[in-house]
Specification:
434 Repressor (Amino-terminal Domain), Rossmann fold, 3 domains, six-stranded parallel sheet, six-stranded mixed sheet, 46% helix, 15% strand
Length: 351
Amino acid sequence: MAKGRVTVIDIAQAAGVSKSTVSLVLQGSPLVNEGTRTKVNAVMRELGYVYNRGAANLRQSGAKSKIIGVVVNDLTNGFFAELAVGVDMVVQSAGFVQFLSNTSESLDRQREVIASMREHGISGLILSPSRATEASDLKPLVAAGIPVVVAVRNVPGARVSSIVSDNREGIFAGVQHLASLGHRRIAFLGGFNDTAVFDERLDGYRAAMANCGMALEESLIVPSAPSRAGGADAIGRALAIEEKPTAAVCFNDAVAFGVCDGLRTIGLEPGRDFAVVGFDDVIEAKTAVPALTTISVDPQGMGRRAAQLLLKQINAGKAEAEAIVSSVRLVVRESCGSGAIAKRQSSPIMA
């Protein structure tokens, strides 16, 4: 059997039936007896065949698919909502429709929704992969010739296009800014420590701490879910250590908002008693109280670029992998306070 995409002919040969019988099974026809149907279905599962229902419909109408699949790992995070808006801006103007789904970090759910999208004949896929996604998870898409753009999180070894932010440089800039304000006890809060994004941002933190001449203590690195609740938990653990931090760079803005919540529950005011820096610059960052100092990634812009990259491959008729690293910039607002925080907390309290 030829390597690559499994066809109806491959299934027919493996099952010892005619091509028309396989087609009838795929259509759910009552003309096929149950024994043959069971045998054909077993062969399809064994060969990894995915019935492209949308493509079948398109063949009948003579049209071409105008559907783009977009799968994200956490749609409750405002970053991904903005990313999806950016994608939609581009694909809609190009005459495509966005098919959006959320995996909630479930690899099984990710596999299910991608299989469903393939069945409906997507022309391409933009994926922010769930935790534990491996190159092998994307191999069937590559083999089928479906263009894929991985966004936000890279998948090592996958032969697909990618667009990610400059994670290392972003956190590096955040730490440097806090150090320039006089902070010497800076924590790194939030993020799942089994993702490439966490490793890249942590690398930026370590490099900046060393560059600023500050001792690196593992107790100042507190992983957590990259969410608001995760941020509240992380700041609670960070402030439980003996020599407390006076500032933190956060894995993302959601964590930073949670850190602010956690500070307020113990009577501390972010920007006044503790400095907070986020990462993403979601829309809410500007209107939060205090307004959030953060690393601007431009989520909508990333979505637009991901869509443009995907459409380029769709229009070219081939999926040549390209890697884009988007530049980032520090946006200083109120949540980082001033050097007075560090000076006040490092000075002995007078009775």
